[in-house]
Amino acid sequence: QLQASGGGLVQTGGSLTHSCVASGRTLSSFDMGWFRQAPGKERDFVASITWSGGTSRYADSVRGRFTISRDNYRNTLYLQMNSLKPEDTALYFCAARSRGTVMYNYWGQGTQVTVSS
Question: Is 16 helix (H, G, I), strand (E, B) or coil?
Answer without folding.
Answer: strand
